[in-house]
Amino acid sequence: MTSAFDDSFKELEQSVMEDMRRVYTEKTIDHFFNPRNLGQIQAPDGFASVTGPCGDTMEIYLRVNNGRIINVTFWTDGCGPSIASGSTVTEMVRGKSLVEAKKIKQDDILNALGGLPEESLHCALLAANTLREAIRDYLAFKNEPWKRAYRR
Ligand code: FES
Questions:
Q1: Helix axes 121-141, 106-113, angle to 10 degrees
Q2: Would the pLDDT of 149 be above 80?
Q3: Which residue, judged by its Cα, is nearest atom 4 of ligand 1?
Q4: The domain that contains 114 carries what CATH number?
Q5: What is the number of domains present in the chain?
Q6: Mean pLDDT computed over 134-141
Q7: Site residues for ligand 1, CB cut-off 6 Å
Q8: Residue 22's domain spans which residues?
Q9: If you measure from the C-alpha of residue 53 to the centroid of ligand 1, how many angstroms do you get, rounded to a whole number?
Q10: Which residue among 2, 39, 86, 114 sits deepest, i.e. has the most Cβ atoms within 10 Å of its Cβ?
């Protein structure tokens, strides 16, 4: 037996989901609610924390072996589209070589999500830029890992 409260909560939930579906693809909504690879990697081989013009920050952590990304995680304090973009970009690069991963751009993330609204395009750019910086960080320290101890 359901209460009047349960019924009105369900109606509200359905209406919120309908509103979201008008704006976002199913894939994007799925990544909002079930973000992949969320979290941190202790002592990562590559790391970046990038703050976009909107003031939101994304972090990407890489574990690299033989030039291949064997583990990758992200974290963000940003909006739903930034969660979807971080989640998607980590799925895209897991198992890829650094050479392949470096080629991933904002448009690749947008295509994987089936698009984002105009006002959220920069959220995919934040994910692409954070990935690029994490790879750059890995390459900068690859041959001189002791320098990490002096990293700010
Ligand atoms: Fe800042 Fe989406 S609004 S990342």
A1: 130
A2: no
A3: 123
A4: 3.90.1010.10
A5: 1
A6: 94
A7: 52, 54, 56, 78-79, 81-82, 120, 123, 126
A8: 4-150
A9: 9
A10: 86
